[in-house]
Specification:
CATH superfamily of the largest domain: Aldolase class I
Structural class: alpha/beta
Strand content: 5-15%
Distance between the termini: 38 Å
Number of domains: 2
Radius of gyration: 21 Å
Number of helices: 13
Shape: globular
CATH class of the largest domain: Alpha Beta
Bound molecules: flavin mononucleotide
Strand order of the largest sheet: 3-10-9-8-7-6-5-4
Length: 336
């Protein structure tokens, strides 16, 4: 964390330049707490349908839950309807007290974008203008949005960014791929630089960051105010401290895995927490020399004691391998 704000979202200071991306199925309270402990400086919920907020579903209460000290906290919502977005925003403010409200204009799945929500909104600039004008005028907190390049036939990210800014948006985050690209091909960082040049409100750059060096490269190359990391942070929260997993000792790696696991079990119920943790543990261990069988055993542990026992076994094996590796290195002839 920095001592001075790096930038402001309207009047809200942000003390850092690396942010955990909103990710459905991953951006829960425990994962956000973990990433924040390593330096993520702004906390997004995953996207929540305005319809779920207005329809009395129990989902939003879990997805928009925040720890008391979690600031700035950003609640992300989506819909194709200006009215629903407005009503949902009012309800989110009353129930969950976010510091910032974000409109998802990036989701490319057919279920969302096909109905004109998510990146579907980028096809209707008038709707974007209406939504931001209304929300920014009538709600007391800053309104922001997360976009893509646009659709293949019309990459209108600069136009949409300008419309957002003119309509009162306080920040734009961009994942520079088209709707059709989904997550394929490379994120086009040049588009982040172009958007930053075109706007005076803060711009967050996103896409394909997996190492601490990538963070600095994106910041330098695009001039963006902060970078946002999604997939590259799963099982790799050290990236927020600009540390790479390769620098960690086995003990540090397993301490973080256990911390994350206990947070999950404490927050979700045991069965749910255990099953939700599987996708994380796979990512934590993916770059280590473990057999498929070892990973499978860990993933299928039936209860908490069994999981912790198998985790300890894996840790022990990796530690032994680390020692053997170190002693082999020590035996090498010195080149000095
Ligand atoms: C599993 C998953 C879930 C996602 N859910 C959301 C979401 O709820 N809201 C959103 O704005 N973007 C969502 N995204 C997009 C990410 O925020 C980010 O823009 C994208 O993954 C590119 O960044 P990365 O290369 O750092 O992962 C999701 C991405 C993934 C992989």
């Amino acid at each position: 964390m920095m001592n001075e704000p790096r930038f402001f979202v309207r009047d809200i200071p942000v003390y850092g330049d690396v942010i955990l991306a909103p990710m459905a199925g991953y951006s829960d309270v425990p994962h956000r707490a973990l990433c924040r402990s390593f330096g993520s400086c702004m906390q997004y919920t995953e996207f929540v349908a305005a319809e779920d907020i207005l329809g009395g579903s129990r989902k939003p209460a879990r997805l928009m839950d925040f720890k008391p000290d979690e600031h700035p906290r950003v609640a992300q919502i989506f819909s194709h309807s200006a009215d629903r977005l407005f009503n949902a925003a009012v309800s989110v403010l009353e129930r969950f007290s976010p510091d910032i409200l974000d409109i998802n204009m990036g989701c490319s799945t057919r279920r969302v974008s096909g109905r004109g929500a998510g990146v579907g909104m980028m096809k209707t600039p008038l709707l974007v203008a209406e939504v931001f004008e209304r929300l920014a005028k009538e709600l007391p907190i800053p309104i922001t949005g997360k976009i893509r390049l646009g659709w293949e036939e019309n990459e209108n990210y600069v136009e949409i960014g300008r419309i957002m800014q003119e309509s009162g948006a306080s920040l734009v985050a961009i994942h520079p791929r088209t709707k059709e690209q989904k997550y394929n091909g490379e994120a086009r960082w040049a588009a982040i630089a172009e958007l930053k040049q075109a706007l005076s409100i803060p711009v967050i750059g996103n896409g394909d960051i997996t190492t601490p060096a990538d963070i600095n490269t994106m910041l330098a190359y695009t001039g963006c105010d902060a970078v946002m990391i999604g997939r590259g942070a799963i099982g790799n929260p050290w990236i927020f401290a600009r540390r790479s997993r390769a620098e960690l000792t086995t003990a540090q790696l397993f301490d973080a895995i256990r911390f994350h696991f206990h947070e999950m079990i404490a927050y979700h119920d045991t069965t749910h927490g255990l099953s939700m943790f599987r996708k994380f543990v796979k990512k934590y261990l993916e770059s280590y020399p473990l057999s498929r069988e070892q990973v499978r055993e860990l993933m299928t542990a039936a209860d908490v004691p069994m999981f912790l026992m198998r985790l300890a076994q894996v840790e022990h094996e990796l530690e032994s391998a680390e020692k053997i590796g170190a002693s082999k290195l020590a035996q090498l002839p010195s080149t000095g």
